[in-house]
Amino acid sequence: MSETNPAAATGAPVDAAPNRYTAAVAAEIEARWQDFWDAEGTYAAPNPKGDLAGDPALVAKPKKFIMDMFPYPSGAGLHVGHPLGYIATDVFARFQRMNGHNVLHTLGFDAFGLPAEQYAVQTGTHPRVSTEANIENMKVQLRRLGLGHDKRRSFATIDPEYYKWTQWIFLQIFDSWYDDEAKKARPIAELVAQFESGERAVPGGRSWDALNAAERADVLGEYRLAYASDAPVNWCPGLGTVLANEEVTADGRSERGNFPVFKAKLRQWNMRITAYADRLLDDLDALDWPEAIKLQQRNWIGRSEGARVDFPIDGENITVFTTRPDTLFGATYMVLAPEHPLVEKFTLAAWPEGTHDVWTGGHATPAEAVAAYRAQAASKSDVERQAEAKDKTGVFIGSYATNPVNGEQIPVFIADYVLMGYGTGAIMAVPAGDQRDFEFARAFELPIVCIVEPTDGRGTDTSTWEDAFASYDAKIINSTGEGVSLDGLGVVEAKARITEWLEQRGIGEGTVNFRLRDWLFSRQRYWGEPFPIVYDEDGVAHSLPESMLPLELPEVEDYSPRTFDPDDADTSPETPLSRNEEWVNVTLDLGDGRGPRKYRRETNTMPNWAGSCWYELRYLDPHNSEALVDPEIEQYWMGPREGQPHGGVDLYVGGAEHAVLHLLYARFWSKVLFDLGHVSSAEPFHKLFNQGMIQAFVYRDSRGFPVPAEEVEERDGAFCFQGEKVTKLLGKMGKSLKNAVTPESICEEYGADTLRLYEMAMGPLDVSRPWDTRAVVGQFRLLQRLWRNVVDEATGEVTVVDTEADEDTLRALHKAIDGVRQDLDGMRFNTAIAKVTELNNHLTKAGGAVPRSVAESLVLLVAPLAPHIAEELWRKLGHTDSVVHQDFPVADPAYVVDETVTCVVQIKGKVKARLEVSPAISDEELEKVALADDKVVAALDGAGIRKVIVRAPKLVNIVPA
Questions:
Q1: Residues 950 and 887 in one domain
Q2: pLDDT for residue 16
Q3: What is the DSSP string of 717-768?
Q4: How far apart, in whole angstroms, are the C-alpha atoms of residue 611 and residue 619?
Q5: Domain that includes residue 943, residue range
Q6: What is the DSSP string of 155-172?
Q7: Residue 861's pLDDT is what?
Q8: What is the CATH number of the domain that holds 318?
Q9: Coil, strand or helix: which one is 643?
């Protein structure tokens, strides 16, 4: 006797549904289809040429390039908040693929940076070893989600074959200058040719031939788009490195590590991003980005129009930038930033006669006062220095400048509320019209001259004022000097007149200023791209030839930069690479005709932003060893087209926290490469979408420490951990907050398709939302009902029938198709899932076997959202080709429009009748039908009609006489 059911033979309970969709079934299906997709290259996107070239018919389709922001491979791995954007782009990419597009969707890894270096310092593990292990772990986690990435195109920024081209791009920038007349970057060789021919005068008046190599290098350094200079930088002793402005918090501490940051003067590499300020602003208009992100970029660039004015001092000039040159007659003192290079030159050895005691800061000499004040200012952040509520501080440097419009001698101070990073680092102080200047003038007993007639009744006697008066509408007064008078003019006319007067006398000019500063590009770290630069014995910087790229990182025993007491500002960097003498000091033949010579390598490394400035281009042509990217391939995927005048990626999804740093830097690199003819796209990312954040509840004990969220119990409305009450607050999800939920745990309990559906169904993609593990089961049940509508849970057989669907089902189907299509195209994934659920529920409630045509359409609707179960059901329905490349269903308009709609008839605002009418009914026809209805006739009871308001097809409002 044979047994087909072992449970029956043993007397154990028989499972009535052995073919139910369970977590175990989901896991088996998902692993099998992931293997299939990898083996078949299902998601490979063909290029028009090159080693990734594919089917010409596929290339001939419209293309879509869809990208996620670069992930950093953390040792902590992913929690369920991380894949939100990755799942969203995957759903959108699958939808576009099913709508006939050749879709490029892949993912690489941004793997240089401080975390891996700090881990290496702590453990002695080489950063590459830990980083590559983290990458492999992340790949496993991402694969389990069923993401449809073209894995042939993936890479990490730490791959030498990748950072070879990062170094190459740096050299293109280094060997370029910005031509203000042409409004574009040009090769530095063209500038040298202009100097050699005399077409362009050499600064200083000497001929090019008369300059030695070091002098020529200094001249070119004033033009190069990548240059080294001695400049004020943000020095962080606790990290042992300098930081860009964007990496310093508002309270003057490092974004990473929270160490104090000080101002120091060091020689560092910079990128002349300021040359592109106007273009970075103007080109935002053509980008499909959130307005909030555009506004942040505009504010960071900070364009303002005004004038530069020279104030003579001891035979030289201090130049200021002002947006209000019309107030020059009210300038009663000057202020320099403490870091201004002219401070030392104009600081006197002794206090001049008549110096007010309050101006000296209690010091015996100006030099002592300046030194003490500079040390004090160096410990403050820019935000602290400019805080409106702070007391105004400063010291007199002993010198006086001349106000050019009236010849008056005005004292020169240094004060921390003036920043070297804005304008010229010097201001003319007009205390009557600027609140900070007003407060400073009051504190230091300086004159306040009214030059704009107050309109608020306060009068012109400034001794009675409690604050400054600033206005763009009032008239100018007290502003007449030699050859110019502004009295009686409005602000606009006065600005134009005084600017013209300044330009005629050669003491000023109308100009535009930007808040944007050049990008500090050096880091005193090991784990970053080495600069492809060497210095000769005269200190002149030379590019390595392309044949020597990539310049790989050497092996070192100590990965850490030298760090110092975090509060010790009187320190300077020492880099890990500088300790490797054999690597630093080399003999090379650079191919410049001078033969082998001794050189010293640059020992700083590039910031972690370097690799992410151009990675979208490498996705296009990742194995090209001869060029950054093939021009034809770049043009195909990213070139300008209708609606995208600057070209770029079709969709870029990531967090709003990258609004300034990454996006601004990437735009700058794109524009330089565009100017030099290497790419056809002047912008990297045409459409930007910022996803929200998945949040989680953080539970803290009485000490404020987080406790494991999964071990917290709710009792009588309170939350307890091991018997102790804890507080509950919604916040970020993370390992340190002990509230992280891993994707693996959800996949094991429900499957990856359920996780995908839940994350997309939680709410609009651009809104943050709280994670609730208990709610995940709702999407699991949706998939179980979908499975039951196709598969018999008892036998495993497909239950669909080859009969036509009834009209109600057809209407439900085509409305779902229409709605889901629109929602997926608009990235409204939560409402798309709601429509799929509604259709699925309709089929469940209808009972009986589902028509094959309806089942197949439902599976295709689900395919972008839950690809594994869709692939499985598609095969069970008898198809042999992948669901991935099937056509997305198209709705029949006849079934999308309701056959009838309900029209409400009101009399005196009260509902008296409801009519079933055609959606296409006209206003005139609807009025006739409404007035003829028995209930309406009865309600009017013979009364006349004064007015009938018709809003076909849903409303008729009758106003009786």
A1: no
A2: 67
A3: TEEEETTEE-EEEEE---GGGT----HHHHHHHT-HHHHHHHHHHSS-TTS-
A4: 12
A5: 899-960
A6: -BTTSHHHHHHHHHHHHH
A7: 98
A8: 3.90.740.10
A9: coil
- Same domain? For 849 and 926 the reply is no
Residues 398 and 503 both lie in one domain: yes
CB 434 within 8 A of CB 471: no
DSSP 3-state of 931:
helix
- Please, is 587 exposed, middle or buried when counting C-beta atoms within 10 Å of its C-beta (0-12, 13-18, 19+)? exposed
**Cα dihedral 317/321/323/327 (nearest 10):** -20
The pair of three-digit structure tokens given for residue 504, joined into one six-digit string: 């005629």
pLDDT reported for residue 124: 84
* Geometric angle at alpha carbon 778, from 83 and 781, rounded to 5°: 110
Q: pLDDT digits over 72-96, tens only? A: 988 888 999 999 999 999 999 999 9
pLDDT at residue 15 in the model: 61
Give the pLDDT confidence score for residue 114 in this predicted structure: 80
From CA 130, how far away is CA 150, in angstroms rounded? 25
State the SS3 of 309-377. EEEEECCEEEEEEECCHHHHHHCCEEEECCCCCCHHHHCCCCCCCCCCHHHCCCCCCHHHHHHHHHHHH
Where the chain has pLDDT below 70, the residues are 1-16, 381-383, 387-390
Question: Whose structure tokens read 């130049």?
Answer: 319
Phi, psi at residue 760, to the nearest 5°? -80, -25
CA dihedral 233, 234, 236, 242 (to 10 degrees): -60
- Asked whether 710 and 49 are in contact (CB, 8 A), the reply is no
Residue 400 φ/ψ region, left for φ over 0, alpha for ψ in the -120 to 50 degree band, beta for the rest: beta
Counting Cα atoms < 13 Å in the Cβ hemisphere of 212 gives 4
Final residue before a domain boundary, out of 897, 931, 952: 897
Q: Dig out the tokens for 88 from the structure.
A: 């969203």
| pTM confidence score | 0.85
DSSP 8-class letter at 594: S
Residue 395 DSSP code: E
Residue 511: helix, strand or coil by DSSP?
Answer: strand
What is the model's pLDDT at position 778? 96
Tokens representing residue 944 in the block: 């006349």
